[in-house]
Amino acid sequence: MFHVSKSYLPGTWALQDVSLEVGRGQFIFITGQSGAGKTTLLKLLFAAERPNEGQILVLGRNIARLQGRAVPALRRRVGVVFQDFKLLSHRTVEENVGFALDVVGTPRREARSRVFNTLRQVGLQHRRYHHPMSLSGGEQQRVAIARALVGEPEILLADEPTGNLDPGLSVEIIELMMAAANRGTTVIVATHDIALVERYRMRTLNLEGGRLTEVDLEGGGR
Ligand SMILES: Nc1ncnc2c1ncn2[C@@H]1O[C@H](COP(=O)(O)OP(=O)(O)O)[C@@H](O)[C@H]1O
Ligand SMILES: [Mg+2]
């Protein structure tokens, strides 16, 4: 994205002149305190919000003014994991993960095998007939990640994906997403959890009052 600004209310900026380039298959963290603009930045990247200024190139298209039928086409290529991950409580794990494939008309047999393989990636194949409520918080979050990954997205956006989890489980979730990056998915993780970010020496950008700066990993400042 280039020189992107976003304002929800006149006179206040959620993002100000943000420029960011992320390479294919890269894994990055966006840090910043509550209200810094992290969620806004992610929403711009899957056209859930529009910028007031700037260009947002995603998978070769400027999506800053994207409308109508082009939006679902973009979203099929971008997986999202949001903090309130809203699994369907009356559906099994398998159905939750497969839902997006049904929507796009993937043949049943192919859908089942993709769901199974994705659940295996997140270590939950043995839970496929369970309901979300009978799973732990960490398992539920892994279901949400499986749901985001099952369509083999080129980009994965995760907003506070470890928000309500113990440190040990948080590490597990981050490592799952790193594995997705190793398979070629571009992964952007927004988190206010500095301790988590510091465990990894991954590219990190910090938002403060809507302004984005690259964090220098070499410096001892963090
Ligand atoms: N839908 C909205 N309407 C008005 N203001 C909003 C809206 N969403 C976010 N904001 C404001 O934009 C700023 C950035 O919010 P957000 O992107 O949610 O930050 P973060 O995810 O880092 O906590 C905050 O000041 C927030 O109050
Ligand atoms: Mg947020």
- Poorly predicted parts: none
Order of SSEs, N→C? Answer: EEEHEEEHEHHHEHEHEE
Question: Beta-strand level of the residues, as a percent range?
Answer: 15-25%
Please tell me the CATH architecture by its name: 3-Layer(aba) Sandwich
Could you give me the name of the CATH homologous superfamily? P-loop containing nucleotide triphosphate hydrolases
Major sheet details? 6 strands, mixed
Secondary-structure topology with pairs:
Blueprint: E1 2-6, E2 15-18, E3 27-31, H1 38-45, E4 53-55, E5 57-58, E6 61-62, H2 70-75, E7 78-81, H3 93-103, H4 108-121, H5 137-149, E8 155-159, H6 167-182, E9 186-191, H7 194-198, E10 203-208, E11 211-214
Parallel strand pairs: 3-9, 3-10, 7-8, 8-9
Antiparallel strand pairs: 1-2, 1-4, 5-6, 10-11
Bound molecules: adenosine-5'-diphosphate and magnesium ion.
Write up what this structure looks like.
This protein has 7 helices and 11 strands. The chain is of the alpha/beta class. The mean pLDDT is 93. Bound molecules: adenosine-5'-diphosphate and magnesium ion. The site of adenosine-5'-diphosphate has 11 residues, from helix 1.
